[in-house]
Amino acid sequence: MTLGELYRKALESLDGIDGAENDVRIIIKKALSFSETDFLMNKSSEISDEKAELISEMLAKRLSGIPVQYIIGEWDFYGSTFKVNGSVLIPRPETEILCEYVIDYLKRIESPIVADLCAGSGCIGITVKKYTEASEVILVEKSADAVVVCRENIVSILSDNEARLINGDIFFPEDLGELPLFDVIISNPPYIKSSEILTLQSEVLLEPRMALDGGEDGLDFYRLLAGKWMKYLKPDGMFAFECGEEQAEKIKLLFDEKEFDVTILKDYSDIDRFVIGKRRKI
Ligand code: GLN
Fold first, then answer.
1. pLDDT single digits (tens) 203-213
2. Dist CA 69 CA 262 (whole Å)
3. Confidence of residue 174 (pLDDT cuts 50, 70, 90)
4. Does residue 211 line the site of ligand 1, with CB under 6 A?
5. How far is ligand 1, taken at its centre, from the CA of residue 149, in Å?
6. Alpha carbon nearest to ligand 1 atom 3, residue
7. How far apart, in whole angstroms, are the C-alpha atoms of residue 57 and residue 51?
8. CA 169 to chain centre
9. Rounded percentage of the chain residues whose pLDDT exceeds 90
10. Residue 188 near ligand 1, beta carbon < 6 Å
């Protein structure tokens, strides 16, 4: 079978799946280790039975509802390829906005210390470290399985493994060992209301519940961050959080406006998605 024939067959097999065309290309390119150009230039090349079989297994997984990112085991985020599997949240493009904002801010600070809380795959903390060499980054993640993935990403993306990863629960910062005061505390915590988890798209339901469930009103983690964690922020420090739709204003209210200057930023779909707060100098 040629690549062109295989591609057409694959498209038919995923008929009805959202984003089928994109997913088919991603799966084929991964299975054949092809770049986009290889894919476009080799439509009449013969594909071995072994590769065709591998591709059909991957397509069957996609058909059963598994996100393409878990099938290929990796996903690109801010110019790096992160390993992902079912124990971590899939890095989202909007999270790049958060990283960009923080990276830009950190350029003005000498040897900054940064925390990424609920690190998951490590996409935020690792990206920030990669683009602000002088920073010290500490990532905290509760799930032992996610920590394995995060560690692999630290090793593969950062040349000297230069990020500290703590396996622990951010609800108990006092149990995380000695922590410094941070210039920036970043987090994309779980923020879905517990009662809404089951209404999510089926693909999202295959992501770890621990990475999604933000408690009854979805704001449990922000209350924790606004409470206990602000003790770990330097007097001139900044926090930068990602949140769900219609949460940003509520999160802003968790912070005393005399102490914090809070700004809300939008994502690519014009949704209030990020809450940034700078401590006002007294
Ligand atoms: N920090 C990771 C991300 O942004 C994981 C977030 C989470 O597990 N809630 O993708």
1. 999 999 999 99
2. 34
3. very high
4. yes
5. 12
6. 91
7. 10
8. 18
9. 94
10. yes
Residue 281 has pLDDT above 80, yes or no: no
Cα atoms in the Cβ-side hemisphere of radius 13 Å centred on 276: 15
Indicate which residue's Cα is closest to atom 8 of ligand 1: 211
In angstroms, what CA-CA distances link 5 with 1, 43, 48, 60, 112?
6, 8, 13, 18, 53
CA–CA separation, 205 vs 103, rounded Å? 31
The predicted-structure confidence for 212-255, as pLDDT tens digits, reads as follows: 999 999 999 999 999 999 999 999 999 999 999 999 999 999 99
Both structure tokens of 67:
């996100």
Ligand 1 center to residue 24 CA distance, Å?
26
Average pLDDT, the chain: 96
Q: What is the largest CA-CA distance in the chain?
A: 71
Give the DSSP per-residue string, 92-136.
Answer: PTTHHHHHHHHHHHHTTSSS-EEEEES-TT-HHHHHHHHH-TT-E
Task: Supply 19's token pair.
Answer: 């984003």
pLDDT score of 282: 64
Per-residue pLDDT band for 70 (boundaries 50, 70, 90) equals very high
Average pLDDT for residues 62-91, to the nearest whole number?
97
- Pocket test residue of 123, 129, 186, 212 for ligand 1, highest count of atoms within 8 A of CB: 123
Q: Check if the beta carbon of residue 125 is closer than 8 Å to that of residue 131.
A: no
**DSSP run (H or E) holding 139:** strand 136-141
CA of 102 from ligand 1 middle (Å) equals 16
Tell me how far the alpha carbon of residue 88 lies from the centroid of ligand 1, in angstroms.
Answer: 7
Q: How confident is the model at residue 145 (pLDDT cuts 50, 70, 90)?
A: very high
Statement: residue 90 has pLDDT above 80: yes
Run of H or E residues at 164: strand 164-167
